[in-house]
Amino acid sequence: MSGCIVGWAHTKFGKHDGIDIETLIVNVATEALIDAGIAPRDVDEIFIGHFNGGFVMQDFPSSLVLQANKDLRFKPSTRVENACATGTAAIHQGLNAIAAKRSRVVLCVGVEKMTELNGAAIGEVLTKASYYKDEGGKNGSFVDIFARIAESYFQKYGDKSDTLAQIAAKNHSNGALNPLAHFQKDLGYDFCREPSEKNPFISGPLKRSDCSPVTDGAAAVVLSDRDTARGLNKSVAFRATAHVNDFLPMRRRDMTQFDGAAVAWHRAYAEAKIGVDDLDVVEVHDCFTIAELLIYEAMGLAEKGKGGNVIADGISAKGGKLPVNPSGGLKSKGHPIGATGVSMHVMAAMQARGDAGDLQIEGAEIAGVFNMGGSAVANYVSILEAAR
């Protein structure tokens, strides 16, 4: 790939009462450009990732980025959406613009404000990212979709409730060290394993601790071509990217595996000329704990049905062979839909540069990102390494 991340910004994820999406967008856009050492007038193109779907009334956000500085006026700015992979979709569009030599510097912003609605309304919005006539409305919610995935996996490979609790506990332990995370509390395995008044079953085998929280937040990255990046203070190069879409209806796919995710990972490995054993750290899309389990298998860490060994053997722990979600992942850091993919790239870029503070994985040089929309429908992989 010809693009590099040369600057970034990230709000704290959580509930931001009294702060609208315009403020979130302007703040991260301004901070990312300052971080990159790029003047607003030198931005060639803007992409903004925003799912919305009814979370807020403002449904035309592309020009809100221009509010960050008058020198952004008249820049082309486009909203990008691909369900929960919206943020990475915006970044990949920016990389495409650079690869086509249409742009030299691109600003990518991801944002979501989810908490203005009540729980039922939030669930209805999220279910729009499913095959609605089969999987939404009276047929259930998004947590019900992943509960069915978990039930199918359990029927095929045995009860994996222990595994899901271990994944949840790992990610909450990691998130406790992340000042940007929505949840910053180490819940422990016992809390995540046993149902309780504070951790009830939500759907099927999934408890509250298996589900990512409803979150507000924004993140931004500045991308440039390699020649421009050489003159800037920091640069994280894209060694490879891959984007794969699968069928939207779950009935057309095997629910016990993420086939599209596996194809995306293997295409990225081929482009980067590496294998899974060459990765030092990854940020993956654990919208529900069952998703992280299936991603272990899709990325080649384990054979089908054996993903539980990855967490049981400590491979995905912070001190393991391949730490997964040292940021806390979506489970602890939060999942503001449009911002999630951009956040994951910020966290991975920090790791590749050794800038992740208490979250840093010692010796990390090659970082992977996996962000998906829907139930592994839109699948994006990025592989990053520090260029300077």
How would you concisely characterize the structure shown here?
With 388 residues, this protein is an alpha/beta fold.
Topology:
Layout: E1 3-10, H1 21-36, E2 45-49, E3 77-80, H2 86-99, E4 105-113, H3 119-127, H4 132-135, H5 142-157, H6 161-175, H7 189-193, E5 201-203, E6 206-207, E7 216-225, H8 226-229, E8 236-245, H9 259-272, E9 281-284, H10 289-298, H11 308-312, H12 329-333, H13 337-353, E10 366-373, E11 378-386
Parallel strand pairs: 2-3, 2-4, 9-10
Antiparallel strand pairs: 1-7, 1-8, 4-7, 5-6, 8-11, 10-11
Helix pairs in contact: 2-13, 6-10
Model description:
The chain is α/β, with parallel strands linked by helices. It has a domain at 3-117 and 215-229: Peroxisomal Thiolase, Chain A, domain 1 (3-Layer(aba) Sandwich), CATH 3.40.47.10. Helix content is 35%, strand content 19%. It has 13 helices and eleven strands. It has a nine-stranded mixed β-sheet. A two-stranded antiparallel ribbon has the order 5-6. Helix 2 (86-99) packs across helix 13 (337-353) and helix 6 (161-175) crosses helix 10 (289-298). The longest helix has 17 residues, at 337-353. The two termini are 16 Å apart. The model has no long low-confidence stretch (mean pLDDT 97).
Q: What is the rounded Rg?
A: 19 Å
List low-pLDDT spans: none
The helix content is 25-40%
> What's the level 1 CATH class of the domain at 3-117 and 215-229?
Alpha Beta
The largest β sheet comes out as:
9 strands, mixed
Structural class: alpha/beta
CATH superfamily of the domain at 3-117 and 215-229: Thiolase/Chalcone synthase
Shape: globular
Which band does the percent of strand residues land in? 15-25%
Topology, number of strands? 11
Average predicted confidence as pLDDT? 97
The CATH architecture of the domain at 3-117 and 215-229 is 3-Layer(aba) Sandwich
User: Would you give the CATH topology of the domain at 3-117 and 215-229?
Assistant: Peroxisomal Thiolase, Chain A, domain 1
Distance between the termini: 16 Å
